[in-house]
Amino acid sequence: MIPEYITGPLIGAIIGSFTNFIAVKMLFYPRKQIMLFSHALPFTPGVIPKGKERLAGTIGNTVASSLLTKSDIEAMVLSKEIEDEVCDTVLKHLTINLKDEICVLSGARGDEYEKKKDELCTLISRKIVESIDVVKLMDDYGSDYIINKIHSNKIGRLVSSEWIESVARSTAGDLQEILAKEGDSYVKPIVEERLSEIDSKSAEDIMLYMGMEDGHLRDSVCMAYRKMASSNIDKLLAHIDIAAVISDKINGMEEKELERLILLVMKKELRTIVGLGGLIGFILGLLNCLI
Length: 291
Hints:
The protein has helices spanning 2-25, 47-50, 52-67, 70-77, 80-94, 98-106, 110-131, 134-150, 161-199, 203-209, 216-238, 242-251, 255-290; strands spanning 35-36, 39-40. The protein is mainly α.
């Protein structure tokens, strides 16, 4: 009698565990459809490989609509921790001198920077020289100044204003030619000196020089970040389809990788299902013996 009461529940437990184990495995296997005599075998592929596209869409929509909404993203972006980290990073960069910061942002080496800086100095110098119209300056201001200077004494009054203007205009033309030929060599060292003064300073130095108080710099950076983040969150989300991103990511996974991901999340629960199958089988086997 005793073996009968033990055998029935044990067999029930084994069958219950085995059937649930097979059911769990059939969630993932077979991974591909099996054909027999031009007909697909039932339950192939497994439940998850077969419904992979639907599963991906459901997970993507659920995450986008319930788990990661616009308000959630905005709360994270505007959280105190993120704000402090962004502001600290910005302030750190503001203390770096402009030359080093430009090299970091552009990926340029020091010698490349100096070469580009020299080209910029040459370009600025040329633009400055080309913008100076000596003849026009002489017509607008120089002639009257020279006439007044010469006519300020008795001998100078003997010279006519027309002659002075003619000489001044001729001299201005000569100076314009000299400026066109030699102006760069005079202006460029001045430009180089000024640029060297600037690139040795940091953005923070420049802001303080322009009148910003030291204690207000961080507040200004944090305020600018909050304003930028708040005003652009809708534009950011308009270009990010969270549901589509998640769906495409899951659809792009191989079945083996998808199985690993699901087991990583639900391995304990799936084992519990197998264990419950054994427990239910044991109880049914015991009841069968008692009845």
